[in-house]
Specification:
globular, 4 domains, 3-stranded antiparallel beta sheet, Arc Repressor Mutant, subunit A, Helicase_HTH, mainly alpha
């Protein structure tokens, strides 16, 4: 089986009957409320925006092959994993995707790793007082960024180099040997030219998509370790904070800020002059991203109680339609239903 086919098949391993087109929109990173909710409901958020250039015809061809092989069952606009498909996934070797978290590291993974490797090269040559070398980063804005970042660090080049070396050592010891070896071979500096990701990963496979997945898996694991270690990696973390790109919708972040300050959606609507539906979309999006959002915005206990009763009568919570909920509970608002679903599915995963 082609790696692309294998990957798409794994995206249906949740077993639910779902719309054919929505997974495509998840993979290319279409940031709409319905797409984000789908990705969260069916545990595909980590693949959000992973394949921004995926051609729709290519996606449809993959689905057609999977349906033809009876790994998926297609019924008009919906598709579902079959028992044969489940067995095929069990038989196949797992793809290197366990650390991929595209919705968190979208747009920053390549940029940060390029800067980290370039900073390593510059610091290494600084330690040896070497100015005559070919930089691995040729973009002027990135060179300027590293120059500015270095000015915020200690002026003692030897202390700087030793501290950065210790951070790399600390980081690498937290990674599996295979990943630590990969990153070590990527490093350039004094009397050392690092190898490219393509050079290293094509030693074990010539499958371009498998190489891509492996690279993203390594990148996102490193970024995850960096996020979690707030003690031993201060220089690397400061480099990360300086990035201009972030994966979140800036307008959504502004909405969240106002909700935290004012406490109501109506206040956001007035202050930011947004449609109420847009404010609701922003709230739902952040609830998907932030599992701790209830510390500053939570549903009223009576609302939760009513929806709990409705859930007992309609346990397939992913299939709820707002018009059906409103027919029974006309006082419930759309965002209340969505937040309740998000909370319940999040709790389901934890169990």
């Amino acid at each position: 089986m082609l790696t692309t086919d294998h990957f798409i098949l794994t995206c249906f391993d949740h077993g639910y009957k779902v719309r054919v087109s929505t997974l495509y929109h998840v993979l290319v990173g279409k940031r709409t409320g319905s797409v984000l909710v789908y990705a969260f409901f069916y545990h595909q958020m980590r693949y959000f925006g992973l394949l921004p250039n995926l051609n729709r015809d290519v996606y449809d061809d993959v689905l057609a092959r999977l349906v033809a092989n009876e790994f998926l069952l297609q019924d008009e606009a919906t598709v579902q994993l079959t028992l044969k498909g489940q067995r095929e996934l069990t038989r196949l070797r797992a793809l290197p995707t366990e650390n991929i978290c595209s919705h968190r590291y979208l747009k920053i993974d390549d940029e940060f790793l390029d800067l980290l490797l370039f900073a390593t090269q510059v610091i290494s040559h600084l330690a040896y007082v070497e100015k005559d070398y070919t930089p691995i980063e040729v973009r002027v804005d990135k060179q300027r960024f590293i120059r500015s970042w270095l000015q915020s660090q200690t002026s003692d080049r030897y202390v700087l180099a030793e501290a950065f070396y210790q951070e790399w050592f600390s980081l690498l010891t937290k990674l599996p040997i295979e990943e630590a070896t990969y990153w070590t071979k990527r490093l350039s500096g004094h009397e050392k030219i690092g190898r490219t990701s393509h050079q290293l990963l094509t030693e074990s496979t010539t499958d371009a998509f498998a190489v891509f997945l492996c690279e993203k898996n390594y990148q996102h694991h490193l970024l995850s370790v960096l996020e979690q270690d707030i003690v031993h990696l201060p220089m690397m973390r400061s480099l990360r904070k300086g990035l201009t790109h972030h994966p979140y919708n800036q307008s959504m972040l502004e909405t969240v800020k106002v909700i935290k300050e004012k406490g109501t959606l109506e206040a956001v609507q007035t202050i930011r002059r947004l449609k109420y539906s847009t404010v609701v979309d922003h709230l739902i999006e952040w609830a998907i991203y932030d599992e701790h959002y209830q510390t500053w915005f939570s549903l009223a206990p009576q609302t939760v109680a009513k929806l709990k009763v409705y859930e007992k009568q309609h346990p397939m919570i992913r299939d709820w339609r707002f018009k059906d909920v409103q027919a029974v509970l006309p006082e419930i608002e759309f965002y209340e239903m969505r937040l309740f679903q998000i909370n319940e599915i999040r709790a389901e995963v934890r169990r």
